[in-house]
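Hi there,

I know you've been waiting on this one. I reran it after we fixed the sequence typo, so this is the corrected version. Both the input and the resulting structure follow.
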Amino acid sequence: MQLKNEEKDFFIKTILKAINDENLPFPKDLETDTIYKAEYYKYSMRGLRAIRFFIKEDKNGNLYLDYLFKTDEYSIHNRINHLGVIIELENFEGQFGWPVYEDKNLTKKEHQRIKEHNQRVYEILKLKGFE
């Protein structure tokens, strides 16, 4: 289904505000149930800014947008509902460092938990077509 201009404008405006980046290029027209990808480099060949997203209709007929935004430093996996509310979805852990505890066994258990969590997140993103 082709989005109306006001629907497209609403989601693009909301997503650009959410990721705090006005420079990401977006397609002219958007349809539901299509995976879109936009990216650019902020500094020549460094500073990748990339997004993958789709727009779908929920069981109540309301549109929502799921996206995965990546930079060289981190990723964000969120949903924007039809009201513009941003809902955090499963995302990778340990992007800013993994914890180290005095107890080596606790550190090992936590690292294993993070690895397993991140594998589950990867599978979710892969099913969505984001990975």
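Quick highlight: Residues 68 and 77 are 4 Å apart (CA to CA).

Best,
R. S.
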